[in-house]
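Why do we bother with holo predictions? Because pocket geometry can differ from the apo form. Keep that in mind while you read this record for FE2/S2 (inorganic) cluster.
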Amino acid sequence: MPDPGPGPDPSSGPDSAPRYPNDVVEAKNRDLSPDDRKWHTVALIADSLPEKPAQRTVPKSQIESEDDIAMEVLVESRVVAVFRHAGQWYALDGMCSHQGGPLAEGVLRDGCVTCPWHGWQYDLATGIQMINQQPLQESFPVRLVEDRIEISID
Ligand code: FES
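The structure, written out:
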């Protein structure tokens, strides 16, 4: 009988998306197209901050700058940390997988956020913890649409 070869690599998917070997994080909607996702507005973009904002508002000047941005938002009872870092937008579960530290208050550097409580670091794009390389922190798609910042968590 011929050798069937090594078979598929269980550590890699059909594309470059990371796999989730320990099922800590399920990538429920990773393969959905943007049109098939349910999007939640997490912040409005406005010329200036309203006196009594009914919703989180980010000044347009901040969006137009190249500064990093971090904010904590609540989406359907989930705490989510939304970041802009080096010009890219990201969203991760806002509560650190270690002991629930507030990731939106973490330091952004080299594509990672460092939790302010004990220093665990997560890749912003994937939620992979940088030391053990496990996908411990769920990540979500983010988009800017007109005057809104939206994320998809479903
Ligand atoms: S709670 Fe985040 S590193 Fe401990």
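The radius of gyration is 18 Å.
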